[in-house]
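Teaching assistant here, posting this on the class forum so everyone can see the example we discussed in section. The complex has two components, and the goal was to see what a joint structure prediction looks like when all of them are supplied at once.
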Amino acid sequence: MQVIRNVQKLRSLLKLSQKGKTLGFVPTMGALHAGHLSLIQQSIKENQLTVVSIFVNPTQFGPSEDLKKYPRPLKRDLQFCRKLGVDFVFLPAREEMYLKDHATFVEIEGLSNLLCGASRPGHFRGVATVVTKLLNIVQPDLLYLGQKDAQQAIIIARLIKDLNSPVRLKVMPTVRAADGLALSSRNIYLNQAERKDAAVLFQSLRLAELLIKNGAQDTARIIDRMQKLIRQKKSARIDYIKIVDLRTLQPMQRITGDCLIVLAVWFGKARLIDNIFLHALKKTKGRIKDPWQNSNTFSLEGI
Amino acid sequence: MQVIRNVQKLRSLLKLSQKGKTLGFVPTMGALHAGHLSLIQQSIKENQLTVVSIFVNPTQFGPSEDLKKYPRPLKRDLQFCRKLGVDFVFLPAREEMYLKDHATFVEIEGLSNLLCGASRPGHFRGVATVVTKLLNIVQPDLLYLGQKDAQQAIIIARLIKDLNSPVRLKVMPTVRAADGLALSSRNIYLNQAERKDAAVLFQSLRLAELLIKNGAQDTARIIDRMQKLIRQKKSARIDYIKIVDLRTLQPMQRITGDCLIVLAVWFGKARLIDNIFLHALKKTKGRIKDPWQNSNTFSLEGI
């Protein structure tokens, strides 16, 4: 495994070692956990070369956000990548990625201002810009993202389509702790009580799933039930809970087909996000008892 | 020469025919003239394959601008390309380039709002977006732009740097008619009298050059002399005349080194732009009589 900090050097090394080999790419901000692991393993499985980038991207953090204290356990991350069989780790300094007079940004209108974008202005502009840069640097065949960051994956899918980026996106299922909490680098901000409380997020998503499978259609009522469940936890402060269309991220009034149930909730200093996707089976002539499948995960191949 | 209207088809054809060959790319809006010719010839000279795109990009036109009446002499353009030895002409329809739900735009802050960007809000956002798309589709080694559109070239140079686009930009000198008028697809909008008057643009740029070579340093006075000259022509309506720094496009108060003299002037329904670049020789110990060289053309390799 080679650790490379310089854009030009990575480019020339990739040129030398690629020669027709397929290249998988997993962009990360480090602090790797089993969620990242699943992305990296998938890339190694499906490609002859795998590049992992570790870069805490400043342009996706707001001025009052956790850029400075974001965890950076670099040694552990590199061991983690080496063990898995990553070929190249791209580890640029801030100055290598952003020149002093950097002025170019990629914006995805509409999608970027909803959900997390409403709470974190400029966040997805920063994400879209750094992903565009990384795709230009690495030029992978396949890009791996996690469904935990559903809005991010949907926005990047839109970007790839709109800018004709020559890459295929694969979204991998959210990896969860035993109690259902989605793995996140930010979980380390939780104290013991908050960590325990945070399991309510997945419970509330499963509650929504159950209600919908049992025929509930009024999204306001479903969200109300989720809120009530989450508010039982003292340390929880809800940012948003929404049931939206996967493609437009617009709220649905009634459950009439596929839907993405998304939420962001604060526990102490940690703002956690999670989601599940409910995929409605097309109705056939005969009634089907459970019209839902693949609950929890979505594919963006079609959108 | 192959004429291709479909993104996927162009991609697979380029993949088949490239195989290590260098690829030059000349993006155009058609209505080709000797300025485009110089770009295409340069690309053919320097590359084993040359792609020319012809696409009147709607996102770079304002609502009251000339998108509809922009000249589209397609047959002539294709003959022109065939004669020169172009390998592929990419000729996408609007729907091939912009999906109905297109939402992604590339913005270059600062540079995009100055000069032509001040008169044409959103223009450079459209240019940056379509160039990003075309670069992703064609994936050329070299990109050729004309210096006549100096601000465009400077913005694209910034974009390539900021987004790590794997392409080298070459800016070719402005091609002029016998009376000095810069060739432009929009010159056909001029009636006979306006066409005659429009020669004053280059005369005013040469006047500025002469004044500066003779020691003039106060840009306000130089611009004033240019204005007076241009205003002698009845059909001329000045949009702007500026003397700016090549890198930042910010106005210079005094001529202290390299400078770009840029202008936009209406003649009837045609808004024409032109510029020259004055390159200051570094002062050596001995005095040099003429401290300027390469007047008229600039290189963006260094910025």
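For the discussion questions: The two ends of chain A are 35 Å apart (CA to CA). Chain A has two domains: 2-172, 185-295. Think about how each of these relates to the inputs above.
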